[in-house]
Amino acid sequence: MAKRSARTLDAAIDEVVRSGNCSGCGACTQLDAGIRMELSEEGFARPRRVAGTATAAAVDRFDAACPGRRMPAARPASAIRHPTMGPVVAAWAASAADRDIRHRGSSGGAITALTAWLLEQGEAASVVGARADPVEPRRTVSLTLQTREEALASAGSRYAPTSNAAVRGALDPAAAVVGKPCEVSAIRSLTTDGPAPLLISFFCAGTPGQQATDALVEQLGIPRHAPLRELWYRGRGWPGRFTAVSLEGTEVSASYDESWGAHLGPATQWRCKLCPDGVGEQSDITAADFWNSDERGYPVFDEQDGVSALIARTRRGADVIARAITAGVLDARPLAIGDLAAVQPLQVRRRTLLLGRMLGARLAGRPTPRYPGFGLLRLALAHPIETLRTARGTRTRVLRERAARAAASPSREVTRT
Known about the structure:
- This protein is an alpha+beta fold.
- The protein is built from 16 helices and 15 strands.
- The strands form 4 sheets. The protein has an 8-stranded mixed sheet, with helices on both faces. The chain has a 3-stranded antiparallel sheet with strand order 10-11-12.
- A hairpin with a 7-residue loop joins strand 6 (127-132) and strand 7.
- 51% of the residues are buried.
- Mean pLDDT is 93; it is low at 412-417.
């Protein structure tokens, strides 16, 4: 303990960033007002000290909450635990009853409908979320929403760096927070001593770097520095098209399969490749695409009306969803959690083989976070050959990437935050 208490918060943060295990959630900024999130050279959100002096204060809280240090599985009361979908109190196939919200949302519009209703009814004093930067729509900003209209204007997923856990209202028990699983996990850990906000998450496949968005817009035909009027990643139909509109009205787009599959997905940060929780276990409510699938279980991306899967992880979440259904905010029917797992093969596979990926990283000398309670060993033992292949492949990739970096800049040191 003496050694731990001697570390400064800056040193603890630096260890996570230098190891590549920072998710960019922003929770560390809640522990020190002199730290803020900025885009790194690689295009990811990273903490940087801008004021004040580093101290040993809050290091223990950081170690417990930072997803680059530790990310625990959730075991809320009354929930049944599914090995890959996490804790479940109840689940529904749902969509926004309002046709416009359903059309604009990335999936069935369920999160937008819920947050707009919570604000309208006064059940949430504010909602922490993310939306396109109004000045530069290529960028995504985390912010606090206070009206139904603001919630509706923020509809749709943003496949870009955000730090919702850094928003000052993110720990307010009177708020609702919509965030990636890592952001929600960190907020849950930071609020264990008192009431937490209503936590809403979604299935996440990782955070691409900002350059991936910039490059895709340019490839589609709008110059890199040309001002945009709008940019959205999905929605306005389901699954929706990646679309950018210039100030002059030129519109370019790509299908979801092209935008995510070929450009954004491959550009996700390292920590996301080691994530045990793409399904938002620590939330009260988690939303997911309830895809139609082919005979292999893989999603079919034909344009149609979107449907969200809604999982109540806690009794609090179940109560909110049930009341929203009664109020006519959501159209919903009960959903067996196994049916959701069947159409989310990538989430199932990533958790099943994660132990192999972590083992390969460690064999290559790269540290990994701790993930207590996920049952990763049990999942790995059920698929031993694939686990070993994954370990070998990860070790090879990590060593190859390290060699390439060394060859490109042999004298360059990692920038410290």
